[in-house]
Amino acid sequence: MTTRRGFLKAAGTLTAAATVGTATSACAVKDPTASNATGQDNSAERMRGFDRILLDAVATAVLPASLGASAILAVTDAFVAWADGYEPVAEEMHGYGYADIRYLPADPSPAWRAQLTALDLLARKHGMDGFSMLSLAKQQELLGVVLRDQRGDRLPAPLGASHIAVALLAHWSSGPDAWDTALGARVAPGVCRTLGDATRKPLSVGTGPRA
To answer: Helix %, strand %, coil % for the chain, to 5?
Structure first.
């Protein structure tokens, strides 16, 4: 018997084939996760990691200083692990309300790595040391120039960030630690608590285990 997911994928493929005209058969419609035109498999090993000296400098410049050096390092480690583990063009979880199969965006890491290099080059072109060697004030000033055209009243999702500095901040801000920091209490969003804990006031940040 055909599964619901298999049926939806087959239906999507047949619909796409019909829209390109009678000269194109369903066999000509390629799955976005299949091998590309160059014959390279998208599942092949891709470049991972970032220049950590530059990335750590960016993290210190954009993340709240109140976190402290060790927490900022941990946040950056988590961002790198997330970016390295990202599977480009993977099939999204099928939600209710739409019948088409949707796929995640392409890998943003190559552009983010290039932006780190560009920050370093920009600093040197202005007669300064490399970005990581600048004072915190100078780093923030340079980032302000680079990000001056960024618009919006809220942070985007990390995958939607057009610059690595924004992606790093957005990745942290979407996690439970950012909520705790903003509220000054260990609310642990997204974590189910027992009924006995439901009426207990959350602990303040920095006092004991999570509520």
So the answer is: 50, 0, 50
The three-class DSSP label of residue 183 is: helix
The phi, psi pair for 152, rounded to 5°, reads 135, 150
Q: What are phi and psi of 150, to 5 degrees?
A: -70, 130
Phi and psi dihedrals of 103, rounded to 5? -125, 150
Helix/strand/coil for 67: helix
Residue 204's SS3 state is: strand
Q: Write out the DSSP string of 76-114.
A: HHHHHHHHHH--TTPBPPPPTT--S--BPPPP-HHHHHH
What pLDDT digit, counting tens, does each position of 124-158 carry? 998 888 999 999 999 999 999 999 888 777 888 99
Report which of 113, 121, 170 is spatially closest to residue 142, judged by C-alpha positions.
121
For the chain, the domains span 50-88+106-174, 175-211
Reading the block at residue 66, the tokens are 């109140």
